[in-house]
Amino acid sequence: MKPKVAFFDFTSCEGCQLDALNLDVGEVLGLLGAVEIVNFREVKTDRSDDYDIAFIEGSITKESEIPRIEAIRKQAKVLVALGACACTGGVNCLKNAYKPDELLKGVYGECASYYNTILARPVSAVVPVDAYIRGCPPTTSEFLKVVKAALLGKRPDIPNYPVCTECRIAGNVCVFQRGGTCIGPVTRAGCDALCVSSGRFCWGCRGLVDDPNTNSAKDVLARYGLTLDQILERFKIYNSYSEVSQCQK
Amino acid sequence: MPEIKIKVNQLTRVEGHGNIHLEASDGKLEKVLWEVTESPRFFEWMLKGRNYDDVSTISSRICGICSIAHTTASLQATEAAFGIKLTEQAWLLRKLLYDAELLESHVLHVLFLIAPDFLGADSVIPLVATHGDVIVMAVRMKKLAYNLAEILAGRKTHPITPIVGGWSKLPDADALRDVRERLVKCLDDAETMVAVVKSLAPMIPNFNRPTEYIALKDSKEYAFITGKIASSDGGTFPLEDYQKITNEFCVPQSSAKYTRHARASYQVGALARFNLSSEQLLPHAKKAAASLGMKAPIHNPFFISVAQAVETVHCVEDAINIIDRLLARGLHDEEVKVKPRAGRGVGIVEAPRGMLIHDYTYNDAGEIVSANCIIPTGQNHASIQHDFDALAPAILDKPVDEIRHTLEMLVRAYDPCISCSVH
């Protein structure tokens, strides 16, 4: 029997789900031949509570999302966090710099009491996660790689070295040498340094490598006359939930 | 007549979380609500204190479907605040990227999300077996839009290269030539898409509710990222005066704000654009509209998707024209110089589903002091609710499943981007 796959969205822009399915016709047919998609609200009306693999998009930012993710965790044999919001909390965690009351009053004014919000957090802060597909958005090829690994019951081979490695392979001039700042030295690779190759810099959307060499990264900053604070503001865009503190060590 | 209770939790085949709630007894409607339950996201607060160079990167994350629209509105707001005018080349590239946005989003909506409603399917997946040719074509069109965006912006979802004042990297001329050939073939695909829509059109519910239609309007072209705000009830308004149009307010059943202008609600999106600017469509698109029997003004919201099919043809045509202009003039590296200054800037574009507004106030250092974003679906929520109020009583004698399905189809017709509307 084909494994049953479900997609669920929490607080997010829903771009990861759509990008995950930005496949060629052959890939679509291959995927549909290998799995049965039983739950995919954005694409499909029928739903089922019987599934094996759950892809979770988005972070947890509302009280009611907690029992929902707990119920999904209970059902799923494999739970995969899809995209930066699910993996690190992503941009949603930028709001954590403000108190919930201040946010609700600021945006909704007198109607603030209609709505609620809690500290935004990644999925792993609420339930255990089995696999991560990182990035904002993740690449389609990595999505397929993780799906294949999940189907085979194996751990996906996701890079655990910094973006700098891929950036060298791409033949880019170092962002620091161009007079900019970049979070590539501590960010997990797997994107082929797409942002730097597009003439920009790394914002760290894939989160930290497992054992970031923060001392070396600080040396790089010192060499170019930059301080940690100058770069942390940018690092916080995707990593303000938990990983900023690790960088400050 | 029996009691009717309909509760659709998390409507499917739309972006984001919304519910439909209807109660009636003795043939009398007691309640019909379009409820938006999406989590509030607070992007306007996230943007505070951010340097201009990171602003469009963050604000594009409001939406995964129309992130190019958010990027464009955001860049135009910042450029307005700093008094920056783009070069012709930078402007043409921005318009070309915008065509990719419209093309991808409209194909997704019309052929993947709406078509199953008309063909009695729960999703596009069973249609692979029954309507394989059309689905293969739809995948091909979507892939082309993605590739065009990749050539220009690094990727389709959350573009990388468009920056304040220009581009961080120019596209490769050969890649543009290749994609032009595919666009020419895509013109045939877009016309086939129109024919598919035409074959489904007899099934479109007969429902008319004239309302106010609001969109950007430009004297020179069918407006997507240029022009002034225009209303079908009369008048044009400068971009900076958008709040006179939007007049946001809250309702308890929606975590997205509502808007209203001359009437209790107004509509934005493809049909609003068509109603206001159809005479400016490019030739193939005009022909497509004629073949569909479309003549402005059209007051049936179910025709939003039909207008999207017409716009799809327009965008493919427009993209070919722009590439021809770019290749004829040659691509040249241009230095992007940005001098931040304190001030306010408003950027307004036509996202695939309607008028999208970013309004920023900057300090001298180029950091955001305050931000306001108004999303097309936010402007359409009230229109959806007022359509419900008019449509539901007229169909109460139908079987419950049909009532539910018609209301679901109505919401889908608007192509809502709900998580975007709760930004």
From TrEMBL, chain A:
Coiled coil: none
SUPFAM superfamilies per record: HydA/Nqo6-like
Name of this chain's protein: NADH:ubiquinone oxidoreductase
The entry's keywords: Oxidoreductase
Gene Ontology molecular function: iron-sulfur cluster binding; oxidoreductase activity
Superkingdom of this protein's organism: Bacteria
Gene3D superfamilies: NADH:ubiquinone oxidoreductase-like, 20kDa subunit
Residue ranges of domain NADH:ubiquinone oxidoreductase-like 20kDa subunit in the record: 13-149
A Pfam family matched in the record: Oxidored_q6
InterPro entries with a match to the protein in the record: Hydrogenase_assoc-protein (IPR051349), NADH_UbQ_OxRdtase-like_20kDa (IPR006137), NiFe_Hase_small_N_sf (IPR037024)
Automatic annotation (TrEMBL), chain B:
Annotated Mg(2+) binding sites: 44, 423
Residue ranges the record marks as coiled coil: none
Cited PROSITE patterns: NI_HGENASE_L_2 (PS00508)
Alphabetical keyword list: Iron, Magnesium, Metal-binding, Nickel, Oxidoreductase
Keyword Oxidoreductase: yes
Binding site for Ni(2+): 63, 66, 417
Positions contributing to Fe cation binding: 66, 420
Gene Ontology molecular function, alphabetical: ferredoxin hydrogenase activity; nickel cation binding
InterPro entries with a match to the protein in the record: Ni-dep_hyd_lsu (IPR001501), Ni-dep_hyd_lsu_Ni_BS (IPR018194), NiFe-Hase_large (IPR029014)
Cofactor requirements of the protein: Fe cation; Ni(2+)
UniProt key word Transcription regulation: no
Family: Belongs to the [NiFe]/[NiFeSe] hydrogenase large subunit family.
Protein name in UniProt: Ni/Fe hydrogenase subunit alpha
Species: Dehalogenimonas sp. 4OHTPN
High-level lineage: Bacteria, Bacillati, Chloroflexota, Dehalococcoidia, Dehalococcoidales
